[in-house]
From TrEMBL:
<feature type="binding site">
    <location>
        <position position="352"/>
    </location>
    <ligand>
        <name>a divalent metal cation</name>
    </ligand>
</feature>
<protein>
    <recommendedName>
        <fullName>Malic enzyme</fullName>
    </recommendedName>
</protein>
<dbReference type="InterPro" id="IPR001891">
    <property type="entry name" value="Malic_OxRdtase"/>
</dbReference>
<keyword id="KW-0520">NAD</keyword>
<feature type="active site" description="Proton acceptor">
    <location>
        <position position="283"/>
    </location>
</feature>
<feature type="domain" description="Malic enzyme N-terminal">
    <location>
        <begin position="189"/>
        <end position="367"/>
    </location>
</feature>
<dbReference type="InterPro" id="IPR015884">
    <property type="entry name" value="Malic_enzyme_CS"/>
</dbReference>
<dbReference type="Pfam" id="PF03949">
    <property type="entry name" value="Malic_M"/>
</dbReference>
<keyword id="KW-0479">Metal-binding</keyword>
<dbReference type="InterPro" id="IPR012302">
    <property type="entry name" value="Malic_NAD-bd"/>
</dbReference>
<dbReference type="GO" id="GO:0042803">
    <property type="term" value="F:protein homodimerization activity"/>
</dbReference>
<keyword id="KW-0496">Mitochondrion</keyword>
<feature type="binding site">
    <location>
        <position position="376"/>
    </location>
    <ligand>
        <name>a divalent metal cation</name>
    </ligand>
</feature>
<dbReference type="InterPro" id="IPR036291">
    <property type="entry name" value="NAD(P)-bd_dom_sf"/>
</dbReference>
<dbReference type="GO" id="GO:0051287">
    <property type="term" value="F:NAD binding"/>
</dbReference>
<comment type="similarity">
    <text>Belongs to the malic enzymes family.</text>
</comment>
<comment type="function">
    <text>Involved in the regulation of sugars and amino acids metabolisms during the night period.</text>
</comment>
Length: 678
């Protein structure tokens, strides 16, 4: 049959409201029941229509809005529009009350495909997990083996295959093993996203190094040879003038989170051009696993403007041209940002792995116009600041002593300058004085030595941190790293390059100096954990951007290694901004995220030199960080609300209610019943 299902008005189990659904401005009667009264009568009938426990399912809000819309037509009627706005406010309370519905059955998911098309769509495919009734409903009978395999059985079978792979590749080169693990996970990702993300969430400690750093760097280097199936979108310089229409080629009607790269500075590997798409894919996998962002609402994007890597120019999947520069480059980024926010005005855009000059330029250009942030500048800075605050606690000092810490930062790139900016802001706020005074204890060193005001061609972004020559312990322009360490005796050291520098750290004024080797992947780390504990002393606090094993110091002592990785912050920053409906991501929101991470660690862990939580708890940590970011957005009046929850309701939430609100809006992978709709 080709008939449509009965409308809600003709269903006998719904109480009809006492007003005409065909009212117009001419015959509208203001004496009709107000929306709150109407919703009160309707609520008992609408509760069973969708299971609100699964807030990520798209079913609840459309059902509710459609039911209200049937009774409150808005065509050219100001009074009706006012009633609709009031109804939406009342609906948010109704929606939250229905979230207490006790059934554990996930809400249905509407699909517009049938048969083999569903099997080829990883968003909806369940492999052999489709129930027989669903196979009939979706035209899958005969397209799958007859036996239905449960979700739990599929999960167990995959894990058995993965453990078998680990056993069979034992003893092989590390890179070979890493790529083999990535391939088996990627095949599952290409086929069945629900099972993929469940496996990832439950085994995040094992799989994060495979889908994220450090393996993702190896994947990017070999991307052209590993390519099997496209993921995300690719905008190139050849698409100039077409991006506004191209953006509608993406099949999802709603996108919440976009991670964008131009491939110009992938990790510590340099210019990889279009092969850098692996970074946005890996970052968004962490958004789903840690922050519970719905995978149907994420979008990895590669902005291909060419590459200056001669080897790739000879053979890769991107444009075979030199990189665009200047106005040509920025016009491409402008067009992309306008296109994205034309279709998805609430989408958050995270800039990732842009070379330094464009990282700062794009951040300053867009952060006041769009909800966006740069993870290399702001995310790295937030994680580093949390580590620095933790190091103060590890030294047995109160947090207020952070303003007295002498900190040396090596590297005047986007990460190093980002750390300095955020740390200076924190010191200025804690000390209650200006940023100029706060910069006194910070020292910036680049490849030419100590940065002072005598430096020729001084980078404008580094200029605020340049010292007066000779003003501090006689240190002059270009003073070597070893000389600075010996004279300044820093308590915290971000990035160290030579063993002689590590040895000089023994002379620090701190009883427990902190060393952070932030570069990744592992092959690019400035020093290993073993070298740090061996040459700088057993009493140090050590953090690294890449994963290292803890170090056996003998006599039952363990040197704890802290992975100072952005994954502890960026999922929570994105989640909090999304659920707040933030207009932009402010410095205050980023500071709140960093301080939340710093306070997450217990005093007992701090005494052992542990500055960051175990990755096992990353989902719980992300709830805390997301709630902190949301509260900061509300405090700064940047929150516009999310779905049915408005800014006033966000403002009235207690801390516990905010945490509960964040938790219930996180997606979790389960097989939802699929309902076909043309």
């Amino acid at each position: 049959v080709h008939k449509k299902q009965p409308t809600l008005l003709t269903q006998p189990n719904v109480i009809q409201p006492n007003f005409n659904p065909n009212l117009t401005q001419a015959n509208f009667n203001p004496t009709q029941p107000n929306p709150t009264q109407f919703l009160g009568r309707l609520s008992s009938q609408t509760r069973p229509l969708a299971n609100p426990q699964f807030a990520n399912e798209p079913s609840l809000s459309p059902y509710l809005k459609d039911h209200i819309r049937i009774y409150t037509p808005l065509s050219h009627c100001p009074m009706a529009r006012r009633m609709w706005n009031a109804a939406r406010f009342a609906a948010s309370s109704l929606t939250r009350s229905t979230r207490r519905f006790s059934t554990a059955i996930p809400g249905p998911c509407i699909v517009h495909k049938r048969g083999a098309d569903i099997l080829h769509d990883p968003w909806f495919n369940k492999d052999t997990g489709f129930p027989l009734t669903e196979r009939d409903r979706l035209g899958l009978r005969g397209l799958l083996p007859p036996r239905v395999i449960s979700f739990e059985q599929q999960y167990a079978r995959f894990m058995e295959s993965y453990r078998s792979l680990e056993k069979n590749t034992k003893g092989q080169p590390e890179g070979v093993v890493a790529l083999a693990k990535w391939r088996i996970l990627n095949r599952l990702h290409d086929r069945n996203e629900t099972l993929y993300y469940r496996v990832l969430i439950d085994n995040i400690q094992d799989f994060a190094p495979v889908i994220y750093t450090p393996t993702v760097g190896l994947v990017c280097q070999n991307y052209s040879g590993l390519f099997r199936r496209p993921r995300g979108m690719y905008f190139s310089a050849k698409d100039k003038g077409e991006m506004m229409s191209m953006i509608y080629n993406w099949p999802a009607h709603q996108v919440d989170m976009i991670v964008l790269t131009d491939g110009s500075r992938i990790l510590g590997l340099g210019d990889l051009g279009v092969q850098g798409i692996g970074i946005p894919i890996g970052k968004l996998d962490m958004y789903v696993a840690a922050a519970g962002i719905n995978p149907q609402r994420i979008l990895p994007v590669m902005l291909d403007v060419g590459t200056n890597n001669q080897k790739l120019l000879e053979d890769h999947l991107g444009l075979r041209q030199r990189r665009l520069e200047g106005e040509e480059y920025i016009s491409i980024v402008d067009e992309f940002m306008e296109a994205v926010h034309t279709r998805w005005p609430k989408a958050i855009v995270q800039f990732e792995d842009f070379q330094m000059k464009w990282a700062f330029e794009t951040l300053q250009r867009y952060r006041k116009r769009f909800c966006t942030f740069n993870d290399d500048i702001q995310g790295t800075a937030g994680v580093a600041l949390a580590g620095l605050l933790g190091a103060v606690r590890a030294q047995g000092r109160p947090l207020a002593d952070f303003v007295k810490q002498k900190i040396v930062v090596v590297g005047a790139g986007s990460a190093g300058l980002g750390v300095l900016n955020m740390a200076v802001q924190a010191v200025a706020r804690m000390a209650g004085n200006g940023e100029a005074a706060a910069k006194y204890h910070f020292f910036l060193i680049d490849k030419d030595g100590l940065v002072t005001k005598e430096r020729k061609n001084l980078d404008p972004m580094a200029a605020p941190f340049a010292k007066e020559p000779g003003a501090i312990d006689g240190l002059m322009e270009g003073a070597s790293l070893v000389e600075v360490v010996k004279k300044v005796k820093p308590m915290c050291f971000l990035v160290c390059l030579e063993l002689v520098v590590l040895q000089a750290m023994r002379e620090s004024d701190s009883a427990k100096p902190a060393i952070f080797a932030m570069s990744n992947p592992t092959m690019n780390a400035e020093c290993t954990a073993e070298d740090a504990f061996k040459h700088a002393g057993e009493n140090i606090v050590f953090g690294s951007g890449s994963p290292f094993d803890n170090v056996d110091l003998g006599n039952g002592k363990v040197g704890h290694v802290n992975q100072a990785n952005n994954m502890y912050l960026f999922p929570g920053i994105g989640l909090g901004a999304l659920l707040a409906g933030a207009r932009l991501i402010s410095d205050g929101m980023l500071q709140a995220a960093s301080e939340c991470l710093a306070s997450y660690i217990t005093d007992e862990d701090i005494r052992q030199g542990i500055l960051y939580p175990s990755i096992h708890s990353i989902r719980h940590l992300t709830v805390e960080v997301g709630a902190a970011v949301l509260r900061a957005a509300v405090a700064e009046e940047l929150a516009e609300g999310h779905c049915e929850v408005g800014p006033r309701e966000l403002m009235n939430m207690s801390k516990e209610e905010t945490l509960e609100y964040v938790t219930r809006n996180m997606w979790f992978p389960v097989y939802s019943p699929l309902v076909h709709e043309k």
